[in-house]
Each structure stands twice: as structure tokens, then as C-alpha cells.
Amino acid sequence: MAASPSDILAPADPHSSVNALVFDVFGTVVDWRGSIIREGQLLGKRKGIDVDWVAFADAWRGGYQPAMQRVRSGQIPWTNIDGLNRLILNDLILKIIREAMEKAIRRGVSEAAARDFILGHLNVELAILFDQLPGVRMSDAANKAVERAKKEIFAPDWKKVFERDAIAENIRMITSV
């Protein structure tokens, strides 16, 4: 049965027939996962990086319930969803760094050397970022390495950066004039 024009036209007072206004802010109306995947793919095309954005979005979303449990238990104070998403992303990045360190150790790098390498780089970069070293900036070699890493680190086969040939190529690249 087709709708009549009176069924389609709004009543003179649109509020007269409203009994409830319901809005789902996370999941049904808002496609957070899909938007992360879509925006990640666009970013990847612009920056020339190949990332498994589905896995990335799923890993990021997988941190939601554990983060909410931290709030519910009082471990952290009430935090809005943007704050929680940032905490989850930070945790995800740290897990990726830890995984990289463990991979280097399995490939024969001593645990102390791998830890010192990772923590040393983080300390220097954080000191520069937070202006703790006035006048100090990232070296040209470090900037080259960062630019190259942007293309590789989020790729599905990112662990190849620890292969001997990849390391040698990176050293050649950052030390070339």
C-alpha cells in the first residue's frame, strides 16, 4: 500500500507526535571502526604506506572494554571516550614497540642492547618533543629514518625491518649524503 501525501508531510507541530528521542552514540549510528579503516586507507594512500587497517582498528577497538574496566575499578578517573581512545592508542603503540624489541631479541640481539636501543631513542625523542634539550633537534639521519619508517612500520609485514638486509639498507640510506 502506497503512502498518501498526508503520511509523508510533517505535521504542523513536529513535536506533537514525538514520544521519545533515542540516539545511539557508539556502534549503530556511528561506525567508528569503519571510519578508522577508511581514514587509515586514505592516509596510507597519501603517505605511501601499506597497513592492515582492519587489524589496526580491531586492535584499537579491542582495548575499549579493558579501558572501561580501568575506569569502573577506579584505577583511572572517569574519562570521556576521546580520552579513552587516546589511552588505548598509546597502549597499542607501546605494545607494538615491545613486540619489535622482543623480535630483535629473538633474532639474536641481547636483551640489554635491545632495551637500551628502544629506551634510548624514546628518551631522546621525548626530551626533544618536550623541549628538555633547548636548541636540539632531530638529526638529518633520524629524520630520514622517520620518513622511511612511516612507509614501513604499519605495513602488514612490518617485522621485515629487523631483517639483516633491511637494517643494512636503512643504515646506508640514513648515512648517505
Give the overall shape: elongated
Helical residue percent band: 55-70%
Strand content: under 5%
Indicate the low-confidence ranges by residue numbers. Answer: none
Structural class: mainly alpha
What is the mean pLDDT? 78
Question: What sequence of helices (H) and strands (E) makes up the elements?
Answer: HHHHHHHH
Number of strands: 0
Ends apart, CA distance between termini: 76 Å
Main sheet record: none
C-alpha-based Rg, rounded: 24 Å
Overview of the structural elements:
The structure is a single chain. The protein is an all-alpha fold and 177 residues long. It is built from 8 helices and no strands. It has helices at 5-8, 32-47, 53-62, 64-72, 81-106, 111-129, 140-152, 164-175. Helix 5 (81-106) packs antiparallel against helix 6 and helix 7 crosses helix 8 (164-175).
Secondary structure topology:
Blueprint: H1 5-8, H2 32-47, H3 53-62, H4 64-72, H5 81-106, H6 111-129, H7 140-152, H8 164-175
Q: Brief overview, please?
A:
The protein is mainly α and 177 residues long. It has helices at 5-8, 32-47, 53-62, 64-72, 81-106, 111-129, 140-152, 164-175.
Descriptors for this entry?
177 residues, mainly alpha, 8 helices, 62% helix, 0% strand
